[in-house]
Amino acid sequence: MKGLLELTHSTARKNELVLSSEVSERLDKVLLEQRQKSRLAQFGLSPRRKLLFTGSPGTGKTLSAAVLASELKLPLYTIVLDNLITRFMGETAAKLRLIFDHIKQTRAVYLFDEFDAIGTQRGATNDVGEIRRVLNSFLMFVEQDSSESILLAATNHPELLDKALYRRFDDIIQFEKPGQTQIKQLIENRLSAFETGRLSWDEITQAACGLSSADVTRACEDAAKEAVLHHDANITTEMIIKAVQRRQNGKH
């Protein structure tokens, strides 16, 4: 399995996630069903465990995978797609089989990140035979998988995915860029060491609209460094807005 799976023992906690109430509720449902899986089994029911996360970069898909793993006290394995997909016919499918054998033997959270690399539509114009075979193999392995592991596929490009994939997942969760409430929460979380009582939140949240959660957090860090190094750790609305605007303009 060397090079195919990257093991992480996640310590991310649920309170680190700043998500819409809908996404948060759906993740809570996954956690509850997993924690109560033996109770569900008494009634012939299975917990959700095959999940597709969609949404633009930096919206919390990978962090949510880490949180699910740590909350359930499971290891997190990320599938290294660069090492999975090869030029040689049949080799990739054989590697996929190894991964699904591991999924069966070792209960964990398994993350197929940038999943569109595997899940591209079979009729796509740039389709190559090997990718089609990989997708067909993946569909077969997912359908046959009856392990206790949690399978997560994450993509920034759901429109590229083959429609047959959607039927294989128990739940499809769409991650959105943060709204003004989430933006304020992200900033307060990141700047908890600073005095933020005098900040003009309306101005800041409006300026940050359209940024991903990751970009909001990085803008806060930029403003915090500016405050610490040049202004005796006094952070201002102007500093945050300036840092946010740099992110909006793609100037980091």
Features:
single chain, 252 residues, alpha/beta, Rossmann fold, Helicase, Ruva Protein, domain 3, 2 domains, 6-stranded mixed sheet, 12 helices
In words, what does this structure look like?
This protein has 252 residues and is of the alpha/beta class. It has two domains: 5-174, P-loop containing nucleotide triphosphate hydrolases (Rossmann fold), CATH 3.40.50.300; 180-248, Helicase, Ruva Protein, domain 3. The chain is built from twelve helices and six strands. The chain has helices at 21-35, 37-41, 61-71, 81-84, 91-105, 116-119, 129-144, 163-166, 180-190, 201-208, 213-230, 237-248; strands at residues 5-8, 50-54, 76-79, 109-112, 150-155, 171-174. A six-stranded mixed β-sheet has the order 1-3-4-5-2-6, with helices on one face. Helix 9 crosses helix 10 (201-208) and helix 9 (180-190) packs across helix 11 (213-230). The protein starts with a strand and ends with a helix. The mean pLDDT is 89.
The name CATH uses for the topology of the largest domain is Rossmann fold
CATH class of the largest domain: Alpha Beta
Low-confidence stretches: none
Quickly give the structural class.
Answer: alpha/beta
Number of DSSP strands?
6
Main sheet properties: 6 strands, mixed
CATH superfamily of the largest domain: P-loop containing nucleotide triphosphate hydrolases
Average pLDDT across residues?
Answer: 89
How many domain units?
2
Q: What is the correct CATH architecture of the largest domain?
A: 3-Layer(aba) Sandwich
Number of helices: 12
Coarse shape: elongated
How helical, in percent, are the residues?
A: 40-55%
Report the β-strand fraction as a percent range.
5-15%
Rg on CA atoms, Å: 21 Å
SSE string? EHHEHEHHEHHEHEHHHH
The oligomeric state is: single chain
State the end-to-end CA separation.
38 Å
